[in-house]
Specification:
With 402 residues, this protein is mainly alpha-helical. The protein has 17 helices and no strands. It has helices at 2-27, 33-40, 44-53, 56-72, 74-92, 98-126, 129-139, 142-184, 190-196, 201-209, 212-241, 246-272, 277-296, 303-317, 319-331, 338-367, 373-395.
Length: 402
């Protein structure tokens, strides 16, 4: 039994590393935007589309793929997703057209979605029950972890070998993860696939979309993610325009998404100690509004203060996704629709990540700078606070289950 548990934990580590690698697909673009603008003549709006297109698959198919992955096979879905990301990134390094990169970015987004939707269910199957909470807590930070790693490594790789080398490196990492999942992650039990096929797809969709909880999760993650990607997506571009380049840029930019990891972990600890979910969400959104104001308002603030605003934005903002993931078991229509609810919540996240960079880029182009970005992010923060009051009423009197 101990040997079986050990093999399960080993496979779980492969899955978690794969999640971080998949998140690097999301994070690989921001450090490359200045180089793409310079070498391919990419406009700011095209860069906004490139940042957003990775979310198209989740934006349009997150809920459906969340239901279908179980029937198709979770491991098979991960392998398919990794194959798509590998191929799109490797081919992308050879292109000289911004339009082709846009198309390939959409395929990368589909691969990311297939991988990230399937991985949590695979972990639940692999990890012993007594360690599941710990492992899922670590998994919850895979996006900020992968984004921070991409922000750290990207500028140095691009400086040394061009943006093409950066694309090829990420593609190679995806290939290695593909081989590791194929080798060490066991196939789905046939019984699990058969059980996933029970019940009508339409009835599950109707129940999910007619319930208040999934919609609250969808909308709240949407307004959070819109701010997150609007700020993180253009961070390297903003600082490159200020003359910060190379390794210094990588370190400064990596610290911002890395701070989000601590916010996610803190949310779980605070909820476990009895904190109210609505209060945590409001705190996260209010501080995100303050942080973006400090970072972008354009007053006579020192670079250190403005950078501190970025760190504050990410750190306390991490309370939001950490709280939302913890609330999924409570707000799902029933226990059989937890994975479906997660898929719908991630679809809300992708909706925000799709529109956030586009709005930020459009606003910057209209006013001739980034100094009004805080208005857009502040509007999202206000909407998040209003939504948070509904969470308080739904969750009142019910402890959050872990």
């Amino acid at each position: 039994m101990t040997g079986t548990a050990g093999r399960g934990m080993g496979a779980a580590r492969v899955v978690m590393v794969t999640g971080v690698c998949a998140a690097m697909i999301i994070g690989k673009l921001p450090p490359a935007v200045p180089a793409l603008q310079r070498e391919l003549g990419m406009t700011l709006m095209q860069a906004g589309w490139l940042l957003s297109l990775v979310q198209v698959a989740s934006l349009s198919m997150g809920l459906f793929l969340g239901l279908a992955s179980d029937r198709f096979g979770l491991r098979r879905s991960m392998l398919t997703g990794l194959s798509l990301m590998s191929l799109a990134s490797l081919v992308g390094g050879f292109t000289e057209s911004a339009s082709v990169l846009l198309v390939l970015r959409a395929f990368e987004g589909l691969g990311f979605l297939l991988t990230s939707l399937s991985a949590p269910a695979v972990l639940r199957r692999l990890v012993p029950p007594e360690r599941l909470t710990q492992v899922m807590g670590i998994w919850g930070a895979y996006v900020p972890f992968g984004t921070a790693l991409a922000m750290l490594l990207g500028p140095a790789v691009i400086l040394a070998g061009g943006w093409e080398s950066w694309w090829w490196l990420i593609g190679l990492l995806c290939v290695l993860c593909l081989a590791a999942v194929w080798r060490w992650v066991p196939a789905d039990p046939s019984r699990a696939i058969a059980q996933a096929g029970e019940g009508g797809l339409g009835s599950k969709l109707r129940l999910t979309l007619s319930s208040t909880g999934p919609w609250l999760l969808f909308l709240t993650f949407c307004v959070y993610a819109a701010q997150w990607m609007a700020v993180i997506g253009f961070l390297p571009t903003i600082y490159a325009q200020a003359g910060v380049t190379g390794w210094t840029l990588g370190v400064l930019m990596a610290l911002v998404p890395a701070m989000n990891i601590f916010g996610n972990v803190a949310a779980g600890m605070l909820l476990h100690r009895g904190a109210q979910p609505g209060s945590l969400l409001i705190a996260g959104f209010v501080v995100m509004a303050l942080g973006s104001w400090l970072a972008f308002v354009g007053l006579e603030l020192s670079p250190a203060v403005r950078y501190g605003g970025m760190l504050l934005f990410s750190l306390v903002g991490g309370l939001v996704p950490g709280t939302l993931f913890a609330l999924v078991p409570r707000l799902a229509p029933n226990t059989g629709l937890i994975s479906t609810t997660v898929g719908w919540m991630l679809q809300g996240s992708s909706t925000g990540q799709f529109f956030g960079p586009l709005v930020a880029a459009w606003l910057s182009a209209q006013v001739g700078g980034w100094h009004w970005t805080w208005v857009a992010t502040g509007a999202c923060a206000l909407a998040g606070c209003l939504l948070a009051t509904r969470f308080g009423r739904l969750a009142s009197g019910h402890p959050v289950r872990h």
